[in-house]
């Protein structure tokens, strides 16, 4: 689809008009004899203008869009594209036919070829004079000549159809005009075009057209323009002007004085009395509001006319308008200012005479937009729209079976009324009527229900750590209740209780000791409407959690200290003691971070009962947790004279004095970072205990306390402590952790029971201490100054110091050896595209060697060579032109121990693959161009030539994508040998592929002095100079659109050839080249050409 913009652009290209067709039948057109023809059957065409003269009526205007400026420009042109303006004659080769108008359109569709019209108007607009237009149908063209003139009209006459008596200053408009001298004035311009005229046109070609001015444009295309000229008119005879196609004609008309002095309008049959609600309809104003629009019957309007001569008349308004050649204009602005009751005067005008029409507005409209503007549980405020026809309103409420007036508002602009003393949650009916001094409107009704009363006595009646139970008084005016909780920064409904008799609700899933805000409102449902009361709010809190882990954390003969877990949900705690037969509060702790309390003034070894609860205060509300109870007792005296009476590597025996105040004793050992009870002795007469299963050479701490049992309560004395130790254990897991050719590093398991270690080496026939390690966390030691690949013996023992005592473990022995020296001079001694051979110096200190390759992200052993005399290894299965990393180390075996040297590393690479498909891509008498396949495994190539009895490098090509090279400076018709190999560089290493050889030869030189030595009418004898570099010659003739060999001359001495079977007096083209054969290979020289003509 074209947009408007693009359509205008298309229209602007009027210089070439083409009639396009969408479906054609090439042989659908038939002549009078029934013969069919198509576009290719057209022999010639001729175009004759039907209208050869063009004037302003043929001028058209379009707008052309300029892409560079984004604007439209106005373009004018003369319309020569109308088929009605030409006669097209088509000659079909012995048969011709003429077409015009729609016949031409049908012809182009049938022939399947458009009629293309070219006039050049796109370059410049035609001026007056002759212009040539070219018409093309298929491949045939014809020209036609058009003449552009100022007008085609020779003469023009315009005659009014009846005598024009224009009323002075009526039927026209006042305008500011300028005369030919530029003088500006204001005058009355008459609408002369509003009258009827007969027009007669005589064209320059003699054609005559007669018609009315109203039909002129449709018949002739001319638009008549009427004017009174530059002369101001006056009452009496005047001259008017009509211009058609640039030619102007005069005509006469009269201006008469306005005979009417005044006009009074009135309506007959009571049509001037309109009733609100009946005579009209409800309409919408621009602001969306509605009003009653009155309609009056204009046909009922009559006019009382007073003429200037003093006479009077009374006409229906239509008859008066006809007499005055005018119309009645009445100003009606109801939509801006709706009419009210009373009289309305409408300004009117007829032929410039001002008057008015008076209407009587009666009746009154019902009140509209009656609604409830606001309501509470005991009041309703009604509102309504202003009634322009009223002076006041009466509002009534239906009560006890009758309507009771509740308000009389003596103002039509007061549009609201509040009524009180209503019952909550009740439905009420109201009605309103408007009134004025003469009328009362019908009633407008509405029903409103008051809101239910607010919920009363809203309170918290129960709480736990995770719930709150809310209660309230029953609201008999409601259907039910909606309960909301404030959370996440907004009020969220948590319950809808659909019965007004349900007056409590339990909210669960709450957090302990947390303040919550709730609000509740009643709702009343009536039909589809729901009314809500106001909100009643309550802030309360959940209980804190119970105090937990209440224990006696300390006691003495006269005090007990209680402690408990901190309750972060609480404000503080209240502690009570049972004494004198009742619970007595002994403390209120006002911080939840205070989690202990000491009760003093107690009796030794006596049972006591306590209870504690948490409390939480938020605002004026305090919530308590439940009680947590504890029964406990005071302590007996401490155990005395605790000593170690015996020890072994795995046991310690402890003893103490008897405690007659105790029930028994509890013995604890400190292990694993805490005190652990190892024995409970249930008789105070048993005063010793053997602790077994201990660890050698380990310091132990013990403590003992007496305990007293009374009922379910047990009280303990204070602890009596003792520290002692066992003998240490032997050092374990002694191994050689590292070695070199001159050192051994020993390591062992940490002995946590020891203070340190003592290390000895056997040398010169005895054990010699080589180190004392004074920390049990130091679990290794490096012995240096040793000999490579040599066996050594060591022993180690732990020692434990506690106070002034030192204890030793037994010895742990180890025999091991030093490493051989590192492998040296590791090199790549051979490589291929899939293997690398490594070699190294012999290591006489080693048993053998282990070779590793880095692959798959880790080192992998590829060979173990079990003889130190084997000093090379070939790694196979590799990828061409690839870098590989290897490392090798020597190993030494003595008994069950194997020691390794350090690694020696080497990075190297495989060779690239051989260069393939080496060929001679081009040759000349002094050069050869070699080419080969690209070797993607290589960095580049090295090219060598065999000369002077040896191979000489002639080129190094440093890119594997360069796959050809031209060798110059060679001798014509000579055999040459070349070889090429790829090379790969990685880091500082370069690897070469094997050589690829190629033998070829240069071309002989071109044949010289090629000419025709003899010609006949059917033969040509060609000759040339001897080519000493050639084996022979090949002669070719150009015939049949290609070169054909006509002779192969062997031997370079034969320098003549006759070509026969040629045509008389005919030009021929020949070419010749020398060739050279060496070792079965043939090389051709370049061509030499000649043109020869046979004789007549």
UniProtKB/TrEMBL annotation:
What's its top-level EC category? Answer: hydrolase
GO terms for MF? cellulose 1,4-beta-cellobiosidase activity
EC assignment: the record states 3.2.1.91
Domain Fibronectin type-III span(s) in chain numbering: 366-453, 454-546, 547-631, 635-730, 731-815, 819-914, 915-999, 1003-1096
Key words, A-Z? Glycosidase, Hydrolase, Repeat
**Domain Ig-like positions:** 347-471
Q: Which Gene3D superfamilies match?
A: Immunoglobulins (2.60.40.10)
Full protein name: Exoglucanase B
């Amino acid at each position: 689809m074209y947009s408007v913009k693009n359509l205008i652009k298309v229209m602007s290209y009027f210089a070439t008009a083409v009639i396009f067709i969408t479906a054609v039948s090439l042989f659908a057109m038939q002549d009078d004899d029934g013969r069919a023809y198509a576009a290719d059957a057209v022999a010639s065409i001729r175009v004759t203008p039907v209208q050869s003269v063009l004037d302003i009526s043929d001028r058209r205007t379009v707008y052309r869009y300029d892409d560079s400026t984004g604007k439209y420009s106005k373009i004018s042109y003369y319309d020569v594209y109308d088929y009605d303006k030409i006669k097209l004659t088509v000659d079909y080769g012995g048969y011709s036919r003429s077409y015009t108008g729609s016949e031409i359109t049908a012809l182009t569709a049938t022939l399947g070829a458009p009629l293309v019209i070219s006039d050049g108007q796109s370059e410049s607009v035609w001026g007056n004079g002759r212009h040539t237009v070219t018409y093309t149908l298929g491949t045939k063209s014809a020209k036609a000549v058009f003449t552009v003139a100022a007008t085609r009209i020779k003469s023009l006459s315009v005659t009014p159809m009846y005598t024009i008596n224009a009323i002075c200053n009526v039927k026209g408009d006042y305008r500011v005009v300028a005369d030919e001298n530029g003088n500006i004035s204001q005058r009355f311009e008459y609408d002369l075009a509003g009258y009827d005229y007969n027009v007669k046109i005589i064209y320059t070609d003699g054609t005559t057209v007669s018609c009315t001015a109203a039909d002129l444009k449709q018949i002739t295309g001319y638009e008549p323009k009427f004017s009174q000229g530059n002369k101001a008119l006056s009452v009496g005879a005047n001259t008017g002007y009509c211009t058609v196609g640039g030619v102007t004609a005069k005509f006469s008309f009269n201006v008469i004085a306005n005979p009417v002095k005044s006009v009074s309008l009135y309506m007959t049959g009571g049509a001037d009395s309109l009733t609100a609600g009946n005579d009209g309809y409800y309409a919408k104003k621009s602001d969306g509001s509605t009003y009653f629009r009155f309609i009056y019957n204009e046909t009922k309007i009559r006019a009382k006319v007073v003429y200037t001569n003093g006479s009077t008349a009374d006409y229906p308004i239509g008859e008066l308008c006809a007499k005055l050649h005018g119309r009645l204009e009445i100003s009606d602005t109801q939509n801006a200012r709706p009419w009210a009751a009373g009289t309305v005067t409408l300004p009117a005008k007829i032929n410039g005479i001002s008057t008015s029409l008076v209407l009587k507005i009666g009746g009154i409209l019902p009140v509209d937009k009656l609604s409830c503007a606001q309501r509470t549980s005991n009041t309703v405020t009604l509102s309504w729209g202003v009634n322009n026809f009223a002076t006041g309103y009466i509002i009534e409420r239906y009560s006890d079976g009758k309507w009771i007036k509740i308000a009389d508002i003596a103002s039509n602009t007061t549009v609201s009324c509040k009524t009180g003393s209503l019952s909550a949650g009740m439905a009420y009916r109201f009605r309103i009527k408007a009134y004025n001094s003469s009328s009362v409107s019908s009633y407008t009704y509405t029903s409103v229900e008051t809101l239910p009363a607010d919920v009363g006595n809203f309170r918290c009646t129960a709480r736990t750590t995770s719930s709150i139970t809310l209660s309230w008084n029953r609201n008999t005016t409601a259907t039910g209740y909606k309960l909301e909780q404030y959370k996440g920064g907004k009020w969220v409904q948590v319950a809808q209780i659909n019965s007004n008799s349900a007056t409590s609700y339990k909210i669960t899933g709450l957090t302990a000791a947390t303040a919550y805000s709730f609000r509740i409102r009643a709702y009343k449902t009536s039909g589809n409407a729901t009314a809500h009361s106001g909100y009643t709010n309550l802030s309360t809190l959940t209980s804190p959690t119970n105090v937990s882990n209440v224990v006696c954390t300390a006691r003495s003969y006269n005090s007990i200290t209680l402690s408990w877990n901190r309750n972060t949900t609480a404000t503080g705690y209240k502690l009570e003691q049972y004494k004198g037969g009742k619970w007595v509060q002994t403390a209120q702790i006002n911080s939840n971070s205070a989690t202990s309390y000491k009760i003093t003034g107690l009796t030794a070894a006596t049972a006591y009962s306590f209870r504690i609860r948490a409390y939480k205060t938020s605002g004026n509300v305090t919530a308590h947790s439940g009680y947590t109870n504890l029964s406990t007792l005071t302590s007996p005296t401490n155990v005395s004279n605790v000593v170690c009476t015996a020890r072994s590597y795995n046991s310690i025996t402890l003893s103490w004095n008897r405690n007659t105040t105790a029930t028994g004793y509890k013995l604890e050992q400190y292990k694993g970072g805490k005190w652990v009870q190892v024995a409970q002795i249930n008789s105070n007469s048993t005063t010793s205990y053997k602790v077994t299963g201990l660890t050698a050479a380990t310091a132990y701490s013990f403590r003992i306390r007496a305990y007293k049992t009374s009922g379910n309560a047990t009280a303990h004395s204070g602890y009596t402590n003792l520290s002692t130790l066992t003998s240490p254990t032997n050092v374990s897991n002694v191994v050689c952790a590292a070695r070199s050719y001159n050192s051994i590093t020993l390591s062992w398991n940490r002995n946590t029971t020891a203070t340190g270690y003592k290390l000895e080496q056997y040398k010169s026939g005895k054990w010699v201490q080589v180190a004392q390690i004074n920390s049990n966390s130091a679990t290794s030691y490096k012995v240096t100054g040793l000999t490579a690949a040599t066996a050594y013996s060591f022993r180690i023992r732990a020692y434990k110091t506690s106070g002034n005592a030192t204890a030793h473990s037994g010895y742990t022995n180890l025999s091991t050896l030093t490493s051989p020296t590192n492998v040296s001079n590791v090199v790549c001694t051979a490589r291929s595209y899939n293997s690398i051979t490594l070699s190294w110096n012999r290591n006489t200190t080693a048993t053998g060697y282990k070779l590793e390759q880095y692959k798959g992200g880790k080192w992998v052993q590829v060979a173990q060579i079990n003889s130190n005399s084997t000093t090379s290894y070939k790694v196979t299965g590799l990828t061409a032109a690839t870098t590989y990393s290897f490392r090798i180390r020597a190993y030494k075996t003595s008994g069950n121990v194997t020691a390794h040297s350090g690694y020696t590393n080497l990075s190297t690479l495989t060779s690239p693959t051989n260069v393939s498909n080496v060929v001679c891509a081009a040759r000349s008498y002094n050069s050869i161009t070699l080419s080969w396949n690209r070797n993607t495994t290589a960095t580049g190539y090295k090219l060598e030539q065999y000369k002077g009895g040896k191979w000489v490098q002639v080129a190094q090509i440093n890119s594997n994508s360069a796959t050809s090279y031209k060798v110059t400076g060679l001798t014509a018709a000579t055999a040459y040998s070349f070889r090429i190999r790829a090379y790969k560089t990685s880091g500082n290493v370069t690897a070469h592929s094997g050589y690829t050889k190629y033998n070829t030869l240069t071309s002989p030189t071109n044949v010289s002095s090629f000419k025709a030595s003899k010609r006949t009418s059917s033969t040509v004898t060609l000759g040339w100079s001897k080519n000493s570099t050639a084996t022979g010659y090949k002669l070719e003739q150009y015939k049949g659109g290609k070169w054909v060999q006509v002779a192969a001359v062997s031997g370079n001495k034969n320098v003549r050839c006759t070509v026969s079977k040629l045509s008389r007096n005919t030009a021929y083209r020949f070419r010749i080249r020398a060739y050279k054969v060496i070792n079965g290979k043939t090389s051709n020289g370049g061509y030499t050409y000649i043109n020869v003509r046979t004789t007549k």
